[in-house]
Amino acid sequence: MQNMAAAGSRKYKKYEMNYLINLANMQEEIRNYTYQFLPSTDFIMNERGKTRLINGEQMPDRTIKHVLCDEVLNPDIAKIPYF
What are the DSSP calls for the chain, one per residue? Predict the structure, then answer.
């Protein structure tokens, strides 16, 4: 389990080092309607005596979803009055 966490940490650090380049590439793909979500990663986690299957998205997909929520969905939802 620790090796897997270390491998994930290395991938994350590498993604962060190239963050602006990645953002520019993703922006271009979205504008051209060519962006495709990457396959998710599955792994088993043992925590507090329970075994769980975890399905995780890759960093570019998480970034895209956060931007869409923050910049597109939330402003539209904020316009709707609620009581």
Answer: -HHHHHHHHHHHHHHHHTHHHHHHHHHHHHHTT---PPPPEEEEEEETTEEEEEEE--HHHHHHHHHHIIIIIHHHHHTS---
**HSE of 34, CA atoms in CB hemisphere, 13 A:** 6
- Banded pLDDT at 5 (limits 50, 70, 90): low
Q: How many CA atoms lie within 13 A of 62 on its CB side?
A: 11
Give CA–CA dist 40/37, Å, rounded. 9
Reported pTM: 0.60
Alpha carbon 28 to chain centroid, angstroms: 18
Residue 76 token pair: 């539209």
**13-24 residues labelled b (16+ CB within 10 A) or e (exposed):** eeeeeeeeeeee
